[in-house]
Each structure stands twice: as C-alpha cells, then as structure tokens.
Amino acid sequence: MKNLTYNSTFVYPLVIRDGQGCYIEDIDGEQYLDFTSNISSCPLGYGHPEIKEIIKRYGDIGAHKIAGQDFYCEEHLLLAEKLLAITMANSKVFFITSGAEAVENAIKLAYRKNGPLPGISCLNAFHGRTLGALTFTFSKEVQKSNFPEFSVKRIKFCTFDNDPEIGTIEKLAREYKISFIITELVQGEGGVNVASKKFAKNINHISRKYNIPLIIDEVQTGLARTGKWWAFQHYGIKPDIISIAKALQVGAVVFDKKFEPNQQGVLSSTWGGGDRIDMAIGIKTIDIISRDKLLDKVNKNGNFLKQCLMELKNVNDTIIDVRGIGLMLGVEFHKTEDRNKTINKLFKNKLLVIPSGIKTIRILPPLIITKQEISKGLEIFERVLKEVKY
User: Are 384 and 349 in contact (CB under 8 A)?
Assistant: First the structure.
C-alpha cells in the first residue's frame, strides 16, 4: 500500500476485512478487540443488525447518492429533524461530508456575520486539516508546517479551575475585534485533555459579554461519546454554532438561526447531505442511542473503565495520568517511547488503541461495549504493562 498511497497516519500493519460487535477482523482472520471505534466513527460497533438492514435496503436504490446542494431527499428532512431535536432550540442545520468541512462551514458562518477578523482557538486544539480549519488546529507541527494561516489568537486550553490563564481570553476580547471563539471541550487529538468547568463557563461568558460567536467542535465528542448527546451539555453552556461528524456518518453544522446567511449559495457542497445511505445510518444511530439508553450505558461503563485504568496507574509508575469523560479516555505515559511500546504490544495482543498528543493513549470503544469486553481489554492492558520493559 505504501507504494500506491500516501502513508498518512497509519498506526498498525493491519488490513481490515470485517467486524462484528466490538471486534475487527483482518484479512488473515485474526480478531482484534477495538478500543478505537475507528476514531469514534463507529459508535455502534460493527455488524449491527439494524445498520446491516439499512445497507441491504439501500443496495436496491438506484439514486443512492445525489447532489445535496441542489436536490432534496427524504433523508435530509428526517436527519435534520432528529439532529435539531437533540441539539439547540431555534437552530438550523447544514449538511456536508466530513468533520473538517463542518468546521470550515462553522467558521464561514461566523466570518459572514462578523467579517474576516481574528478567531480565537486553543493550544493543542485539533479542528481538521483543510486550510481554514488548519489555522485553528494547533496539535502537531507536522500538520501545519509551510501552510498559510488566517488571523488567529491562541489561548491555553485550561484543564484546572485554578489555572491563572483562564482569564486570558477576556484580555484578547478587550484588545481586539474578534470574529469567533472555537474550541473542543475534550481535546481528542491533542491528548484527551478535558476542559475545566470554570474555563468552559468563562469562554461562554466572554462570548456573550463581547458578542463573539462561540463555536463548539463536537466532531469527536458528539452523539453520546461522553455520556451526553454533546460534550457542551456537561458544562451548562450554550454554543452559537456546533460542528458535528464521525458518529453521525456525515458532516453537519448546527447554528442559531441568527447566523443563517441572507443569500443562497454562501454555503454549498456537491455531496453534502447527498450520500443517502450514510444519512440513513445517522438517523438510525440516533434512534438506537435513544431507544437502547446508551447514554446511561456510556456513563456506567465509562466510569468502570476509568476507575480500572486509575487502579492500573496506581501500580504502574510509567503511567502519570488517566482522564476523560464517558467512553472518551486518555492514559498518559511518562515518555512518548513508553506510550508507543505499549500501543505496539497491545496490538500484538489483539487490542486496538490509538495515540493522542505527545505521550497519551486514546481509548474510544464502541458505545455498545459490555462490561465483560471492557474487562477483557483491561486484562490485556494489565498484562502488557507487566511485559513491556520501560
């Protein structure tokens, strides 16, 4: 493959053939317990019977994909209704195809309202790799080197309420005219860093005080990953614009109606909302999360998994922190080398995890995972920690 495609961020020598439940199968028939959900994009795991039924049903539809910028389909309406019912009142939605596009269109809405002024984003943030979104990404140097940027002001992403830099954002809001504030509330790519309550509430306060649109990036945290529909619901704040993708299967921007452009054509995407099967899976995913009470399950299993990881930390000097919300957890190691050794050894023991930040392991199991499957993954993790020479 390396001779044919760009070697992007591949972690494992793994070629996926199939999957069932929380397990992935490679082309050699080997089974791997998946603690990644393909970076939160497979919230219901693999081979879910109701998802397979949708795939089968849409296999008989000739017009399976349409130019969503010019034509409507029933899935547009159904997904819009489902999504707006669980996000914000007095809002609308625009569909695209990916998370980076969701961020691009979120910042376009803000620029359209306030003009091309600086935006504020956080250190260690990840908002995508397309050029507009990349300006507000600040996770790894390799992602940004030699690429141009829009005007941006950066603040520290504060994870403790007593951090003295929480107030920095107000200084920027006083000194500059700002087009928008954009942030994650759990930094997925940047190290699974969890915003402190005071930090999030202060950003919301500054947004209101200085009339600056607040964009919350829920691409990785959205649709029950953290134990609520959206991470911002943990903080009691109200964003103006939300970027959504991954678990939804398509990209989406939900925005307060006051940000709706007054002309057609300001936002557009040929296939945005046009891949009907993905929209149908997104609709069914919302239904299943609600019907099967997966929010409760994520909280219960997330607490169990986090507590067990904390116990492993207490008896392993190489781990310095365990953090996260729901089934979005991070295990930070003393050294990058130690983290990488652990990931490779876990893979050899048939447990899939992914790196995050400089020296953290990111854990994102499917929302349907059972306590027994969590325990099996923890057994592998504990064994590997004993076997690896740090």
Answer: yes
* Residue range(s) occupied by CATH 3.90.1150.10 in the chain: 16-34+294-387
What is the distance of C-alpha 157 from the center of its chain? 16
CA–CA separation, 261 and 242 (whole Å): 16
Q: What CATH number does domain 16-34+294-387 carry, 3.90.1300.10, 3.40.50.1100, 3.90.1150.10, 3.90.79.10?
A: 3.90.1150.10
- Reported as a single tens digit per residue, the pLDDT across 178-226 is 999 999 999 999 999 999 999 999 999 999 999 999 999 999 999 999 9
Residue 141 contacts by C-beta under 8 Å, 6 or more apart in sequence? none
Alpha-carbon gap, residue 340 to 359, rounded angstroms: 8
pTM of the model: 0.97
Over residues 159-183, the mean pLDDT reads 98
**Cα angle value 274/278/279 (rounded, 5°):** 65
- Kindly state the helix (H) or strand (E) to which residue 37 belongs, with its residue range: helix 37-40
Please list the residues that pair with 18 across neighbouring strands.
25
